[in-house]
Write a structure and sequence with these properties.
Layout (H helix, E strand, L loop, with lengths): L1 H39 L19 H13 L2 E4 L3 E6 L5 E5 L3 E4 L5 E6 L3 E5 L6 E3 L2 E4 L2 E4 L5 E12 L4 H8 L2 H21 L4 H6 L1 H15 L5 E13 L1 H51 L2 H16 L4 E3 L7 E3 L1
Parallel strand pairs: 6-8
Antiparallel strand pairs: 1-4, 2-3, 2-5, 6-10, 7-8, 9-10, 10-11, 12-13
Helix pairs in contact: 1-2, 4-6
Amino acid sequence: MIRIIIGAGLGLMGGIAAVVLRERNKREEEAYERELDRYENGKCYRKPDKPALISPKVGIVPVVIGGIVIATGSFYAQDIGEAVVLRNFGGSIAGHTSEAGLHLKAPWQDAIGWDIRNRQINFFKDSKYAYDGGSYEGAEVSINDASGTKANIDIQVIYSLDADKVEDLYAEYGTQEAFVTNYVSNDLRATAREVAGKYDTLTLLTDRAKFTDAVQAALAEQWKGKGVIVEQVQVQDIRYAKSITSAYADAQSAEVAKQKALNAQETAKVEAETKKIEAQGEADANAIMTQSLTPEVLEQRYIDALKSIGKNGNLVVVPEGSQPIVGK
């Protein structure tokens, strides 16, 4: 719209300049004719100089410039990752585009860009509140878990906007900054608090991933159909009071000690069972051996031993009823 005003102003200036110049030239020529007539009639002794006339066509220059300004207002360039809402002079919405490139529009329409790339909402400790091109940053989020215990969390959400919803978003919020500041960021805080109230202290301390997944699912459901797409949620830290974390640490230490004791008992049981099995096995083996050593078997082993000694050239003397004597 500003372009139209500028272009129309330049065109008007050019037209006025042409009229003014034409009238000026007319007056200058009439004055010249009068002076020339006096000179020719001997009423003055100096012949007048011809006036320096300026062509009214000079006024065409601002008219042409104004036309160019208006013509350039009929185009707009759109970047990748951007959606554009077209607004008429009266404030009504004329449509939107989501494809990158050069587009046509009426000169009286404004092209309002919305960034639909992935952007971040960060809430960290003592951060200052700030908006930057679709991204937003603020202080930590305070929550209360299912037992009413208070904690502070650092959370980050990566989101993007649905290009087909920018008309609705513009109609309701006017600017992307107002939408992110007044809706997206506030909704994130409220959802994180609501989800935290469903989990006890121990779960939040030990299973942050479960809490993170729950927040992401809740946000996706909350923003469904509203033009906001949840790309990723990260709960980076959950900070309870020192008394809470100390009590948890003591409980963890007690649990570890208990588990060590149980493990030691289990090990002792296994070792005792192993010794029992080994002892039973040895007893069974001795029993089998005892049962197998009959007089016949013992006599045969005795004969085999004498034969083995005799093979090496040894003399074996076995008096009846005595021990064998071995000699070379």
